[in-house]
Amino acid sequence: MPQTLFHMLIQSYEKFPKKTAFIYRVLDEEFVVTYEKLFKDTLLLSKAFKSKGITKGTKVFLYSNNRYEWIVTDLALVSLGAISVPRGLDTPPKEIEFIISHSEAKFAIVETKEAYENSKECFEDLKATFIIQADKTHTFFSSLFSYNDLLKDRTIAKDEIEHFILKKESLKSEDIFTIIYTSGTTGTPKGVLLTHENIIHNVLFLPKVIELNEDDVWLSILPSWHIFERAAEYISIANGCKTIYSTIKSFASDLEEYKPTLVATVPRLWEAMYSKINQAIKKESPKKAKIFQKLIDISTRYNYYDRMRKGALISYEKESSFKRVKNKVVGNVACFFLYPLNAFAKRKFLLVKEKFGGRLRAAISGGGSLPSYLEKWIDAIGIRIVNAYGMTECAPGIAGRGMKCEVLGTIGYPVEGTKLKIVDKNGNEQPAGVEGEIWVRGPQVTIGYYKAPEDNAKSFAPDRFFKTGDLGKLTYGKELIITGRSKEIIVLANGENVDPTKIESALTMLPFIADAIVVGHSKKGLGLLVVPDFEKLKEYVLENFGEMVDSFEHLLEHKSLTNKLKAKMNEILVPKEGFKPFEKLQNIHFLSEAFKPGEELTNTLKK
Question: The whole model's pTM is what?
Answer without folding.
Answer: 0.87
